[in-house]
């Protein structure tokens, strides 16, 4: 009689063990998927953070009529803004965008600044513009600036910057983020008159 009352009021010990075993098996199957999902979110979130900073740099450059740079230290996985302080000096801007940001552990950052093609500027008919041949370069070489002139877009080993002009023109560049799980995101500025956006290659 006592055993019958126990059976009616709930699970037997064997049934509880079986339920717990099923829960453990399902959890074991879900944990790897959740881990991969979390890793992918880190890449996506970093991409959105870099995109927001690039858009902010472009708008501030236009509104303040001074050059902004989005700097990258790829070896350290860091990025930050600087603004033209005059005399070729670039300092962190005042306000909320003077932070040096770091990428999450395990996320690799690769930045390529693409030289612009030669640009014909508006000029009188009696003035000839000198054409300068520019080759496509990456981090350790020369890169073309936003007005078509050749400038050095590298600070030091592993460091590079994207420049934003008050005219709204931007150094074309590709910023690729990867993690060990195979997730990748690209933030792309395809031409000097475009802004940055999340490009192809996102997984």
Protein architecture, described:
The protein has a single domain, classed as minor pseudopilin epsh domain (minor pseudopilin epsh fold), CATH 3.55.40. 30% of the residues lie in helices and 26% in strands. It has helices at residues 2-9, 13-64, and strands at residues 68-73, 78-86, 89-91, 101-102, 107-113, 143-144, 150-151, 159-164, 173-179, 184-189, 197-198. Strands 1, 2, 3, 4 and 8 form a five-stranded antiparallel sheet that branches. A four-stranded antiparallel sheet has the order 5-9-10-11, covered by helices on one side. The protein has a two-stranded antiparallel ribbon with strand order 6-7. The longest helix has 52 residues, at 13-64. The radius of gyration is 26 Å and the shape is elongated. The N and C termini lie far apart (62 Å). 23% of the residues are buried. Mean pLDDT is 75; it is low at 118-151.
Concise account of the structure shown:
With 203 residues, the chain is α+β, with helices and mostly antiparallel strands.
Top keywords for this entry?
203 residues, 26% strand, five-stranded antiparallel β-sheet, elongated, minor pseudopilin epsh fold, four-stranded antiparallel β-sheet, alpha+beta
